Amino acid sequence: MLVRPFEVGDLVKIEGDKGIIRAVNLTKVKLETFDNIIIEKSNAQVLSSKIVNYTIKLGKKKSFEDFKRKILAPQDIGFKEMYEELNKSKKNFERTLKKAYDSFTTKYYPKLYTYTFRMAFPYKGFRVMLSKVAELCNEYNQKDIFRIKPQFDIVDYHLSIIVKFRLLTFSSQKIFDFQPKFAEDVYRIIYEFTNLLEP
């Protein structure tokens, strides 16, 4: 590790694992992925791997938040406000979950089922599409379909923006009954706005 390809806080990709370097010591490197999973890699693994350091290429930005803003802000005016709204939504999630559990009259709390899936969004018109997706989640919440409001977050960037959706419910049957419809509604938003924005 005489010539270090990264330092703590850098956003890197090592052997297909993308995340932020949290620790570097004599024997291993700790990497935190975008899903908040800590991965440990031995220095031997790191030295024999192809390493991409996004931080260096992006002018030494030290946080994933800054990385998101830097890479997306030029793509769509108004995205910053939408991203702040996403952060606010995540902060309210614990309160929403607690409220759902508190709605049960007995001390018996049923099992909480979760289902996640990802969808690719184009850069063009992304903020508008994400606003419509937020409205869709609110509609599902008002109808109390899953009992807990569907959650979503931006998790990756390639030729498109990858958005991860998370459905939580106390009834596994509701996932089978309504997840395909929810995914179809999201896809319809992407399809309609992509066609609308094409010249």
Q: Overview of this structure, please?
A:
- There is one protein chain.
- The protein is of the alpha+beta class and 199 residues long.
- It has 2 domains: 11-72, Roll (SH3 type barrels); 79-197, EIF_2_alpha (Alpha-Beta Plaits).
- The chain contains 6 helices and 8 strands, in the order E-E-E-E-H-E-H-H-H-E-H-E-E-H.
- It has helices at residues 43-47, 54-57, 64-72, 79-102, 126-142, 172-197; strands spanning 11-14, 17-24, 28-33, 38-42, 51-53, 113-121, 151-157, 161-169.
- A 5-stranded antiparallel β-sheet has the order 4-3-2-1-5. Strands 6-8-7 form a 3-stranded antiparallel β-sheet.
- Helix 5 packs antiparallel against helix 6.
- The longest helix is centred in the C-terminal third of the chain and has 26 residues, at 172-197.
- The chain is globular.
- It starts with 10 loop residues before the first strand and ends with a helix.
- Residues 56-62 and 73-79 have low confidence and may be disordered.
Shape: globular
Q: Main beta sheet, described?
A: 5 strands, antiparallel
- Helical fraction equals 40-55%
CATH architecture of the largest domain: 2-Layer Sandwich
Global Rg: 20 Å
User: What's the number of helices?
Assistant: 6
Give the CATH topology of the largest domain.
Alpha-Beta Plaits
Provide a quick synopsis of the model.
With 199 residues, this protein is an alpha+beta fold. The protein has helices at 43-47, 54-57, 64-72, 79-102, 126-142, 172-197, and strands at 11-14, 17-24, 28-33, 38-42, 51-53, 113-121, 151-157, 161-169. It has 2 domains: 11-72, SH3 type barrels (Roll), CATH 2.30.30; 79-197, 2-Layer Sandwich (Alpha-Beta Plaits), CATH 3.30.70.
